[in-house]
Amino acid sequence: MLNLLRNSRLAPLWTLLRLWLGWQWFQAGWHKLSDPRWMAGGEALKGYWARAVGALPDTQPAIKYGWYEAFIRGLLDGGHYTWFAKLVVIGEVLTGLALILGAVTVFALLTGAFMNLNFMLAGTASTNPVLYTVAILLLAAGPAAYQYGLDRLVLPYLQRIFRRAKEALAG
Predict the structure, then answer these.
(1) 101 vs 119: CA distance, rounded Å
(2) Is residue 115 part of a domain?
């Protein structure tokens, strides 16, 4: 089955899915860049986290795992939404751009899947299960998913850098 997914003849299909996924992430973050509720004080994320942990009047926690609720509650109580909101927005935009360009695709897919997983853990279904599934499929497709993109140029360059760094560390 994995060989079927990684078949280079399917690269056009994987490229279309990668572009679609990248556009979803880009759009999700782009409109937030000019929203002061995200970029100035993080009030939008504060409200999201407050609903997720049931900290608003007449709300039940949407989070079903105690460890994750404690984690989000700690971030909320510590006021970390002020900087974390910016991280979310920039992460969404950069993940989208990387997927659209086909640059550092594996890292972008892992980042996007991780963000989707966190949204789902916080009790938000929305489009997250679909986006998460597409990211996993693209990861399974391997190089066929980024056959058409900047990774063909970027990855050999990064491999040389990491090889030199490894050699330098080894002695």
Answers:
(1) 24
(2) yes
Question: Is 1 inside any structural domain?
Answer: no
Residue 13: pLDDT over 70: yes
Tell me which residue range forms the domain holding 112: 8-170
Q: Is residue 166 part of a domain?
A: yes
For the chain, the C-alpha Rg in angstroms (whole number) is 19
Give the pLDDT band (50/70/90) at residue 154: confident
pLDDT at 2: 58
Average pLDDT of span 79-93: 97
Whole-prediction pTM: 0.88
Q: State the chain's mean pLDDT as an integer.
A: 93
Domains held by the chain: number: 1
Q: At what angle do helices 81-101 and 43-53 cross, to 10 degrees?
A: 100
